[in-house]
Fold:
Amino acid sequence: MPRRATRRAARRRVRTAGRPAARALPLPGGAAAGRPLARDADPDLRARPETRELLSTAAGHTLPLYDSVAAARTHLHDDRRTVPSISEVLLPVAGSTRHGRDVVTEACARWDLPDLVAPASIIVTELIANVVDHVGSMMTLRLSLRRRYLNMAVRDGSPQPPVPALGMSPQAAGGRGLLLVNELTYSWGYLPSTGGKVVWAALRRT
Structure:
């Protein structure tokens, strides 16, 4: 290599040596998946390890992801991403399970999903009963219609993750709620939220 070219290459190495390297933060699914984000990028994009682990589950595969918080905010009222949904705030009382089933029946009738009334009613009953029995906080039930799934979610005021009772038969008289949810759903899980968590479940549309 000519001496002049060697000197130019050496100067380039000196100039770039002090630059911070980009840190690759692979995101699961969505438009921004796998794109590297610089270390000095928006701090809100640096998800905690436990949040990134949760986003790698089935829930993360259905969430739209964007390159920045600003980009996500521009789509908050995007009609193309608006999905049919029904929400209801419920008290932590036994009667809320019946009210939840009524909401499911209304949603399935509105969206022409008669085959999902029974399984969705069981799932919603168990999710609500879990809050009534183990959390005791106000809760919000939300049903939303996706292209391939009926999504159900209950938000409560406890950050503690739901824990299925291991070693118990689904036919047992009690303590079988999450086992039933696991048996009936296509997928289910939970996500942390401000002041609590959201337990969600998905049924495949027929």
Q: What stands out?
A: The radius of gyration is 23 Å. The longest strand covers residues 196-204.
